[in-house]
Amino acid sequence: MRVQKVRLSECNSLRDTVVVIDVIRAFTTTAFAFSCGVEKIILVGEVEEALRLHKRFPDALLGGEVQGIPIPGFHFDNSPVGMERAGSSLKDKTIIFRSSSGTQGVVRSVHASRMLVSSFVSAEATLNHLRSFSPQSISFVITGTTKGGFEDLALADYLEYRLLSGNIDSAPYIERVRQSPSGMAYAREAYPHFRKHDLEACCMVDKFPFAQEVFREENLFVLRPVSVGKGEPLPLRGEEPRQDR
Q1: Which residue of 27, 33, 138, 158 pairs with 38 in a disulfide if CB–CB is 3.0 to 4.6 A?
Q2: Which among 208, 232, 215, 195 has a CA at the least distance from the CA of 79?
Q3: Residues 213-244: tens digit of each pLDDT
Q4: Residue 121 CA: distances (Å) to CA of 58, 112, 191, 204, 222
Q5: H-helix or E-strand containing 158?
Q6: Sheet containing 61-66: which strands, arranged edge to edge?
Q7: pLDDT value, residue 137
Q8: What is the spatial distance between Cα 75 and Cα 10, in angstroms, rounded to a whole number?
Q9: Neighbouring residues of 111: CB distance < 8 A, sequence distance ≥ 6
């Protein structure tokens, strides 16, 4: 198995299995949303696209941020704790989600043969899902940009070691998340929308038993929780046929 780590600028050239990483906070937030019963999350690159899709899917909820700042008129920002607090009100819902880092890695990886997203809360499930179909090559996309993405690199290093070398303690990698510029900014709540409780949520290793996989459906990037080893979204609720996988 060949493993490489790439930045957002390289996504368009990727044609292997891609794992898009955003630890603080996008793909921690999406995992928490799925744990509350969200059916699917449509990932987009721009606010305007999210608003257009909301006209097409008026029952969907809007979530995300721009440079970490909540978007006026959206139902949710990019907060895992915010999703958790919404609880059962999210059951069977669709969310249209835009972030400044994580979703950018998804929409730019248009040629990936298969695509997952990950954070520490679903690390083990991500590993088990990758092992279930044994890709020859994996590209880990480090999406963090404004503060270096050191927390994303920590997860990529952790996943790579686990795939190629075996078990290892996750604690030093979580410490790298906490000591990253983004981690420290959240720890000290440097801005009103940077909350320490979100950082704590991002550091919960293996909280959820599902992986998160991106499927192409009607030319949209649709994220779904996946039963580990089965390659099928969970829960299976009236989903449309997946295309162009």
Answers
A1: 33
A2: 195
A3: 999 999 999 999 998 755 566 543 333 434 44
A4: 30, 23, 24, 5, 20
A5: helix 150-164
A6: 2-7, 137-142, 17-21, 114-118, 211-217, 220-226, 40-44, 94-98, 61-66, 69-70
A7: 98
A8: 32
A9: 12, 13, 14, 15
